[in-house]
Amino acid sequence: MEQVTIKNDVLAIKVALLGAEVQEVKSLKDNFSYIWYADAKYWGRHAPVLFPFIGRSYENKYLIDGKEYNMKQHGFLRDQVFKIVDKQKNKLVLQHSATEGTKLVYPYSYTVTITYTLEDTYLHINYDIDNNDAKDMYYSFGFHPGFNLNSDLSNYSLQFEPKLNSLPTLLVEPNPFRNGKIADTQLQNGKLELNYPMLDNGVKIYDISDIRTVSLISCRDAHQVTEDIADFPYLAVWSPENKKAPFLCVEPFRGLPDQYGKTIDIKDKLGEQHIAANSNDQFTVSLNFIYKND
Question: Phi-psi bin for 229: left (phi > 0), alpha (psi -120 to 50), beta?
């Protein structure tokens, strides 16, 4: 599938037209690649865009006004081909609109426009979702980037700003469904220490309503990634279970996977987003790729 490259003096970015997926973020200073290589031994994707669902629907089904529809895990946008709307040296605009095929499983007329802009060490990603229907539209949206690790996960941590003492955690059981319970995850001055065992039972999902940024940092790696996630209410942290994979996904979500045992109407899903008829939503995630030896 065709890739498009944009760059500035610091970073070079490759984006696939399939799913508008960021497939590489490379430092031009030391040639380090920040985004996971998509080795299928662990996980065969890089940084997919999730829409119109996040996670798995119970029995892969959901309802709209009582009518049942099928929906695969993480929706279908990651497998749709985008068109190029604009291409500049440091900017790329991609777009996808509903088709007759997508309407069979998601009966809404929508347009998703994604703008990638490089600014110094930052990659700004703006999402614009248009509801072209004369009826309200419900959806979930997520960004699922995998970041390469240079050593064992136990050498890494997540630093949240502002520095809270705990984060509400939406418990997952059985994986990948929620069980409807919430617990607090303790932080040390806003820092969450990481290790593989904490992820071996499945994804962690945090309520980040009061969080502005999260940084993936390591005492043994000069490379750091900071995500500005102020437009997202939830954050998922995942690495393939029991594989000790050399990457970590730090995923801002606008929406949630289903609670186990319940097939529910889309408008009743916890965390579901809503766009009025003939209106739109806009939100942004910014990634700062830092090389601390500079």
Answer: alpha
